[in-house]
Design goal:
The complex is a heterodimer.
Chain A: H1 2-32, H2 49-55, H3 58-89, H4 97-105, H5 112-125, H6 133-156, H7 160-168, H8 173-184, H9 186-202, H10 205-210, H11 218-226, H12 232-255, H13 258-263
Helix pairs in contact in A: 1-12, 2-12, 3-6, 3-9, 3-11, 5-6, 6-9, 7-8, 9-12, 11-12
Chain B: H1 11-43, H2 57-63, H3 66-99, H4 102-113, H5 120-131, H6 152-175, H7 180-188, H8 193-221, H9 225-231, H10 238-249, H11 252-284
Helix pairs in contact in B: 1-11, 3-6, 3-8, 5-6, 5-9, 6-8, 6-9, 8-11, 10-11
The chains are: A mainly alpha, B mainly alpha.
Keywords (chain B): Cell membrane, Membrane, Transmembrane, Transmembrane helix, Transport
Membrane topology (chain B): Multi-pass membrane protein
Main location (chain B): membrane
C-alpha cells in the first residue's frame, strides 16, 4: 500500500538530508588530507602535510592556544556565575524567580553583532583595551545562561526532602550545598561547563570585534584566512576545530546526553 | 510540596541568596544593559559639529540613503530566502523524525543536531569549498558551469544549512505534542494518509513552523561571517555595514543607528509574518 511507499520515501529523504547536513564537514575534513598545494575534494593524494603546516604555523598555533585559554576561562567563570545563581533560583519560593531567569537569559536573544558593537563602544568609551576583557565578557554573557538552565534543569527534579533531611541531621547550608545539592546536579553542571567551553571555542563574531589584530582566536583567524582565499591550511585548521568539537560532543553525550540537552529528549537509560 | 510559609524574614538566607545571585546580575548590568544604553545613546548623536542631542538625524540619513536601503533590502531578501529554504528542506525532515521510531530516530536526530556544535566558520568554509570552482560546479561540463560562490544564492544556501537544525527542532517539538490518539482515531475512521497530514499534522505543527521561521530569520538577518565569506564584497549585508562603520571607520553614531535599524527591521518582519500566519491559520481552522 501507499504507507509502505511513504516509509521508503521517508527513509530515502532521511539519508539525503543527513548527507546535506554533514556535507560541509566531510568536504573540509577530506580536503584537509590533501597532498596537493590547492583545495580539492576528493583529494587526489592523501597526506598529513597540511596538518604539519598548521603545526608549524605560528599564527594558527598562537590562535589555537588563545582560543583554548579564552574558552577555559569562559567556562570557569560562566560555571561559577551560572551555578551560584542556579542553586538559588531553583527554589520555588524565591520572589520574582521567573523574571530573574528571563533577565539572565536575555543576552541569548540579542544578535552577536549587536552585542559585539555594544561591548566595543563600552570599552572604547572608557578607553579600556577590548582584549581580553570585552572578549571574555561577551563570551560569559552568551554562555552563562546555558549553565544556569542546565544546572536548574538537573536540580529541578531534586527531591526537596533530601535537603530537609540534611538540615534535620544538623548540616549547615554550605554543607548541604556542597555535599547534597551540587553532587546531585553534577551531570547538568558538567554539561553546562562543556557546552560553555565549546560555544566560546566556536564563537567567531564577538572575537572578530574584540580581539586585537595580532592576537585572534582560532575561528577569527580562520575567517581572516578564508576571506583572502582557499589555502588548504584553512581546511586543516578547520579540521582541528572539528576534532575538538567532536571530543566535546562525546563528553556531553557521556555526561548528560546530547539529545536531552538540545532536543529535550531522554536517551534510553542503560540499566 | 507546599511547605509552611513563614512570614518571618530569614536574614541569613536572604543575604546568602543575594550574594550568590549578585555576580551574574552585576555582570549583566555592566556588560549588557549599560553597553546597550550606550549604543542607543550614540545612535541619537546629531550629525555635524553643533548638532543637538538627542537627534534622529542618523536614522533619517540612513533611511534616505539609497546605498544603505539597497543593502538593507538585500539583507531582508536573503534572510527570507534562507528561511524559506530551511522550511522547505526542514519540514519533511521533521515529519520523518515524527514517524521514525527507536534507534534510527536517535541517529537521525543526532546528525541534525551535531553540526550545531561545530563552529559556524567551519560550516561556512565547507560551503566555500563546495560551491567554489573546484566543488560542485566542477561536476558539470565547463560550458554550462555556473558561478555559485560570491553570489546571493551562496549566502542563502549557507545560512539555510547553518540554521536548519533550529527549524527542524522547533517543528519537531510542536509535532511531538500532537496527541497520538488523534492519529489513531483518524486511522480508525479510515482517513487517508494525506487527510491525516492535512487535517491533523499540518495545523498542529504550524506553531512550530512559525517559531522555527522566526528563529532562522532573525539569525540569518544578523549573521556576520557567513554572508561575507559566501557573498563576497559585491553582496554586502547589514552586519558588514555595522562592522565597517564601527571598526573600520570608527563612526559610532552611524554604526549604532545601523544596528538599531537592523534590529527594528528584523522585529517588524517577524511581527508581520506572525500576524499573517495567524490569519492564515484561523482561516484554515487550525
Amino acid at each position: 500500500m501507499t504507507t509502505g511507499l511513504l516509509r521508503t520515501g521517508g527513509r530515502i529523504y532521511a539519508i539525503l538530508f543527513c548527507i546535506f547536513m554533514l556535507a560541509p564537514m566531510i568536504v573540509v575534513l577530506g580536503a584537509s588530507f590533501t597532498g596537493e598545494g590547492y583545495i580539492s575534494f576528493p583529494p587526489p593524494s592523501l597526506s598529513l602535510r597540511w596538518y604539519q603546516e598548521v603545526y608549524h604555523n605560528d599564527t594558527f598555533m598562537r590562535a589555537l592556544r588563545y582560543s583554548l585559554e579564552i574558552a577555559s576561562i569562559t567556562a570557569a567563570a560562566s560555571g561559577a556565575l551560572g551555578v551560584a545563581a542556579a542553586v538559588v533560583l531553583v527554589n520555588r519560593d524565591i520572589p520574582g524567580r521567573g523574571l530573574l531567569v528571563t533577565l539572565a537569559t536575555m543576552p541569548l536573544t540579542l544578535p552577536h553583532i549587536v552585542l559585539s558593537i555594544a561591548l566595543l563602544q563600552l570599552f572604547g568609551q572608557f578607553a579600556v583595551p577590548t582584549a581580553p576583557y570585552a572578549l571574555l565578557a561577551g563570551h560569559i554573557l552568551i554562555t552563562a545562561p546555558y549553565v544556569l538552565r542546565l544546572t536548574m534543569s538537573s536540580l529541578g527534579g531534586l527531591d526537596p526532602r533530601l535537603q530537609l533531611a540534611s538540615y534535620t541531621l544538623g548540616a549547615s547550608y554550605a554543607q548541604t550545598l556542597m555535599r547534597v545539592v551540587l553532587p546531585l546536579g553534577m551531570r547538568g553542571i558538567t554539561a553546562g561547563l562543556l557546552f560553555a567551553f565549546l560555544l566560546s571555542f566556536d564563537e567567531v563574531t564577538i572575537s572578530l570585534f574584540t580581539a586585537l589584530p595580532g592576537a585572534q582566536t582560532l575561528p577569527a583567524e580562520i575567517f581572516n584566512y578564508a576571506s583572502q582565499g582557499a589555502d588548504p591550511i584553512i581546511a586543516s585548521a578547520s579540521g582541528i576545530m572539528i576534532i575538538i568539537s567532536a571530543l566535546g560532543v562525546v563528553a556531553i553525550e557521556l555526561s548528560f546526553g546530547l539529545l536531552r540537552m538540545i532536543a529535550g529528549e531522554e536517551r534510553p537509560r542503560r540499566s | 510540596m507546599a511547605e509552611a510559609v513563614s512570614l518571618r524574614v530569614d536574614w541569613p538566607r536572604l543575604v546568602l541568596y543575594s550574594a550568590m545571585l549578585a555576580p551574574l546580575f552585576i555582570i549583566l548590568l555592566f556588560f549588557f544593559v549599560v553597553p546597550l544604553g550606550i549604543v542607543a545613546g550614540n545612535s541619537l548623536t546629531g550629525t555635524g559639529v553643533d548638532a543637538a542631542f538627542p537627534s534622529v538625524s542618523q536614522y533619517t540619513s540612513i533611511l534616505t540613503d539609497s546605498y544603505y536601503l539597497g543593502i538593507l533590502w538585500r539583507t531582508v531578501v536573503v534572510g527570507l530566502a534562507a528561511t524559506l529554504g530551511a522550511l522547505v528542506l526542514g519540514y519533511p525532515a521533521a515529519l520523518v523524525l515524527f514517524f521514525f521510531q527507536g534507534r534510527w530516530r536517535q541517529v537521525f536526530l543526532f546528525v541534525i543536531i551535531s553540526p550545531l556544535f561545530i563552529s559556524v566558520i567551519v560550516r561556512t568554509y565547507g560551503w566555500m569549498v563546495l560551491l567554489g570552482p573546484g566543488g560542485l560546479p566542477s561536476l558539470l561540463p565547463s560550458e554550462i558551469r555556473p558561478r555559485l560562490i560570491k553570489t546571493e544564492f551562496a549566502i542563502m544556501v549557507g545560512l539555510a544549512h547553518i540554521y536548519i537544525p533550529y527549524m527542524v527542532l522547533s517543528i519537531n517539538s510542536a509535532m511531538s505534542r500532537i496527541d497520538a490518539r488523534y492519529l489513531r482515531a483518524a486511522a480508525t475512521l479510515r482517513a487517508s494518509n494525506y487527510q491525516i497530514f492535512r487535517d491533523i499534522i499540518l495545523p498542529l505543527s504550524a506553531p512550530g513552523v512559525v517559531a522555527g521561521c522566526a528563529i532562522v530569520f532573525s539569525l540569518s538577518m544578523t549573521s556576520f561571517s557567513t554572508p561575507i565569506l559566501l557573498g563576497g564584497s559585491g553582496n554586502k549585508t547589514m552586519p558588514y555595514l555595522i562592522y565597517q562603520q564601527n571598526l573600520v571607520v570608527g563612526d559610532w553614531a552611524t554604526g549604532s543607528a545601523l544596528a538599531i535599524v537592523l534590529l527594528a527591521v528584523t522585529m517588524s518582519v517577524l511581527v508581520t509574518l506572525t500576524l499573517l500566519s495567524r490569519r492564515v491559520m484561523t482561516r484554515v481552522g487550525g
